[in-house]
Amino acid sequence: MTSASHGRRAIALTVVFTSLAAGISCTSPEPVASSREAAAGFVEAWNDEDGRAMAQSFTERTRARWPPRRVGALLEKSLDRGEISSFEVALERNPDQPERDEVDAADESGELIAVPLEYSVTYESE
Question: What pLDDT sits at residue 8?
Fold first, then answer.
């Protein structure tokens, strides 16, 4: 059974992850055919508890605040403490594909294109 304070910590950790993912751009260090592929890769990395792969999808600004080590530590900490015993992340809808002119401009400038994600996090807490 989950105590009230224990449950609040688990919810707070989920909110941290939610805030973290809201700041991602769903980019990829490799050329990606679509934003859908990039989003699927990020969600897969999250489900695999792979903080390094998750952080590779962040914009430079978000990655500065949430480097791979910090993302991995947060995942590990929440699971090690038993606050969250398991979780699953799922895309709620496919992300929008950027317009061709946005892609061309990003290619020219070397900038990454941010693609917002709608996702759900389902977790169990003991």
Answer: 39
CB 12 within 8 A of CB 121: no
pTM exceeds 0.90 for this model: no
Give the separation between CA 82 and CA 39, rounded to whole angstroms: 28
* C-alpha of 62 from chain center: 11
Q: Are 59 and 24 spatial neighbours (Cβ–Cβ below 8 Å)?
A: yes
Question: What are the distances in angstroms from CA 35 to CA 22, 65, 82, 97, 114?
Answer: 15, 23, 34, 6, 9
Residues in CB range of 3: below 8 A, 6 or more apart: none
CA distance 45 to 64: 19
Q: How confident is the model at residue 101 (pLDDT cuts 50, 70, 90)?
A: confident
